[in-house]
Design goal:
Blueprint: H1 2-50, H2 54-74, H3 79-103
Length: 104
Amino acid sequence: MLSFGFHNKTLKRESKMNQNTINDNVQERLRDLEAEKEITAAFLFALISTHPNLVSLKKSFLAASETLIATGNTKAVPDSWIRQQVDYQQLLCQWIDHNIDKAN
């Protein structure tokens, strides 16, 4: 029985180490995704700022993003994902509108 207890403690320790490794990997992946999102946003803002036809861009963007959001509504995605999409859509539309106003 003593060896079983020792083995059980070893398994628990290994399991905890594995969980810590998984947690570290998840945290690293989340940081990577955040960095990707930030660089993509900067790229999009630059593209919007230099686009020759902002009204057309906004129409195309709204159509594409509405399709993406509607697709998310029909799939089993969390509401938080849809809210993030809507928030991001609104942010980019505000930036487009800002640039339209600036051009006029």
